[in-house]
Design goal:
It is globular and about 75 Å long. It starts with 7 loop residues before the first helix and ends in a 7-residue tail after the last helix. The chain is α/β, with parallel strands linked by helices. The chain has 13 helices and 17 strands. The chain is 39% helix and 20% strand. Bound molecules: zinc ion (ZN).
């Protein structure tokens, strides 16, 4: 994932691709109108993108001012990516084309991954996915992987308290014998990239993508560029200490934000309520132990109206509001998107966050703060992994060091 200077040409190509994705198809003059680029520039970009099979003539032409002009669209069939999201409990893979169409999606469950156990599952899953693609005749351009931890420029895992695997160079493990480029990045950062790539509207200037899942992270994007920061570790907000007297975190510190929001925080709160004798579907009649092996079981219970699960999530929401108000004073985002497994209970979370957001911090910072669900909810980072492949295909890495 070499960091390259974005030359103007790549930048303009991205702009054209973006317009074609938003509009489905456009003529050269349509692109000129939408982008403000000059006619010769757009013509040159169209020529190059067509030569590289990124765009193709659309099935129908457009008549403007009595002249028939050829319309172009994205060449989805020639540009497909295998996207993989590594979760703490499962792996999700999908085949996605340049136009954002999902051709296939599968979730592969496993026991909770610890200490780098996911590596073998990841390799097996990718092999199975590639076999499926061969059988279906899907021609892939690359593999994008969304990972719940910090990954450096050599694709090496440098910090991953919830899943392990530090020191592993994932791309090497996967690339072996696959014959396709493999790109990996942090899940929250890929969430921000997905918001830039796949939203129907023009991206906001400053985006904060909150990945709320087994851990908590934030992906930042400014002026259409994802921000990586020193050591590629920008946005590791889950390990910001909010209460030094708090519980011990998987990272070794005490009272990290994550200890108040994550899966383990929910389990702790639910167990407390069970001890107080409150009924919950998570402890079915006759069962000796509550059944909450995974985050999705707790989300299911909350969605089904279970008060104990819902209250545990609301409490997480109150801490998430603290994270949002910190982001708000530091980077003043135009919008905060909520992704990860918690986005399934977005309404519940935001309802708990509002009273705190309305009272914390100077009024200037509270004005105009927008919180929205992520573009593909819990699948946003997965779609970001597909976008990462296309970013590289265009010659950019979309990373601000
Ligand atoms: Zn921590």
């Amino acid at each position: 994932m070499a960091i390259r200077q974005h030359d103007i040409r790549t930048e303009n190509q991205r702009l054209v691709i973006e317009q074609l994705r938003r509009h489905g198809m456009l003529t050269r003059s349509g692109v000129v109108e939408q982008t403000g680029l000059t006619v010769p520039t757009v013509s040159a970009i169209f020529r190059e993108l067509q030569e590289r099979s990124l765009i193709k003539p659309a099935d129908r032409s457009v008549t403007t001012g009595g002249r028939r002009a050829e319309a172009f669209c994205l060449n989805g069939e020639a540009n497909r990516a295998l996207a993989v999201h590594v979760g703490v409990h499962d792996l999700t893979w999908a085949v996605v084309d340049l136009a954002g169409k999902v051709l296939h999606k599968e979730v592969v469950g496993a026991a909770r991954f610890r200490g780098g156990m996911f590596v073998t599952h990841l390799r097996n899953t990718i092999n199975a996915a590639l076999k499926h693609c061969r059988e279906q005749g899907f021609n892939l351009q690359g593999i994008g992987i969304s990972f719940p931890g910090v990954v450096d420029q050599e694709n090496r895992i440098t910090l991953a308290p919830n899943i392990g695997g530090e020191g592993v160079v994932l791309a090497d493990l996967v690339e072996d014998g696959v014959g396709l480029p493999v790109h990996i990045d942090n899940d929250a950062r890929l969430g921000a990239l997905a918001e830039i790539w796949w939203r129907a509207s023009q991206p906001e200037q400053t985006i904060a993508f909150l990945m709320v899942d087994y851990g908590v992270g934030v992906g930042l994007a400014m002026d259409g560029r994802v921000h990586a920061g020193k050591n590629f570790a920008a946005g590791d907000i889950g390990h910001a200490v909010v209460d030094p007297r708090g519980e011990r975190c998987a990272c070794g510190q005490f009272g990290c934000l994550e200890t108040f929001i994550s899966y383990s925080a929910l389990v702790r709160r639910i167990n407390d309520q069970i001890r107080l004798g409150r009924p919950t579907v998570l402890l079915p009649a006759g069962a000796a132990e509550p059944q909450m092996e995974s985050l999705s079981q707790i989300m299911d219970a909350a969605q089904a109206g279970d008060d104990v699960a819902a209250e545990a999530i609301r409490e997480a929401g109150r801490y998430l509001a603290i994270a949002v108000s910190m982001l708000n004073v530091i980077i003043a985002p135009d919008v905060v998107y909520i992704g990860g497994a918690f986005s399934r209970v977005y309404d519940l979370l935001v309802e708990a966050m509002q009273p705190i957001l309305h009272h914390r911090g100077p009024e200037l910072h509270r004005q105009g703060l927008r919180i929205e669900p992520a573009v593909f909810l819990a699948d946003t980072s997965l779609m970001g992994a597909a976008a990462l492949v296309f970013e590289h295909r265009l010659g950019g890495s979309n990373k601000k060091g």
